[in-house]
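Project standup — Tuesday

K.O.: blocked on the structure for the chain from last sprint. Re-posting the sequence here as requested.
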Amino acid sequence: MSGTSDMVQTVSFSTIAADVKPDHLLVLVNGIFSSQSDWKYVQRELRQHLSSNFIIYASAVNSYLQTLAGIDVAGRRLAEEVWQVVEKIPGLKRISFLAHSLGGLFVRYAIGILFLSDANEVADARKLLPMQNNIETIAGLEPVNFITLATPHLGVRGKKQLPFLLGVPFLEKLAAPVAPYVIGRTGQQLFLTDGNAKKPPLLLQMTLDYGGRKFISALGSFQTRICYANVSCDHMVGWRTSSIRRETELPMPPKQSLDGYKHVVSVVDCPPVQTDCPSFKPETIEEKKAGQTEQGSAKAVPYYDRVEGKAGMVTLRRCWSCCTCDRLLETAGTSIIHCV
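H.V.: unblocked you, prediction finished:
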């Protein structure tokens, strides 16, 4: 973790005026086969546009081949890193995340670990005096903004969800069994074939408070949840999965951009509503077995459709309430932002 401590020192002292006491930690999280260095340009731009109360920290624990170890492994690394950063920087009160691609799933797993809802747990985590009122926090801090850029929230299985395969059915069927050999456990999880057949795949678990992890409670605790999705020109992540939509729910994208935003074509309001939590029925177990052993089999199709539908319904309609483009880091509005 030496990279973590070095980065904290750089952010804490060299970029902050002496008379300013920053209290808002913004964590940047990279995606697959990338690293914290990919955020250098973004960091420079954010420093110019954000107020001086922000500390901008680029995660350093999931770089390059480390991103292939699995979403859960990377998420645990990220959670530990965030704890260390919070402990090293005094005076922090709030926390936000900005994650690119697979990094969005790393963060969703990590916040399930970092979520604290008991006042005394929070006080103990921050080494404070016991608190009287219950409060929901992430690493003992007030959760403000959760932002993902082209994140495959529903995995990558399905028509044109890996755009570089050009929607060719043969290639898309071949991708699932080949993925673990190319991108490891992360590949199994993205294709929803991970784990024991009797248990939900990880991405479905992450739509619940599951196995002692408060995934959905943590996501719901943020004041603002922002989901950016590329309508076109994204060769790695399909529009449907990054915007948390069923195929039938994808709108026809407008041909003109919104005023003042060259690449933004649509902002869709998605106010959170209550829905039933997903279940994992016996027939789903048999379908998952087929998905693990016969990915091209027609038996597996109902499993994928059922899991993706449940994951999208719960994740989007219970949790995602996102802000509009012109108020990116403010807590107002509800929308999913479609870009070209």
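K.O.: great, moving the ticket to review. The longest strand covers residues 142-149. The first helix runs from residue 2 to 14.
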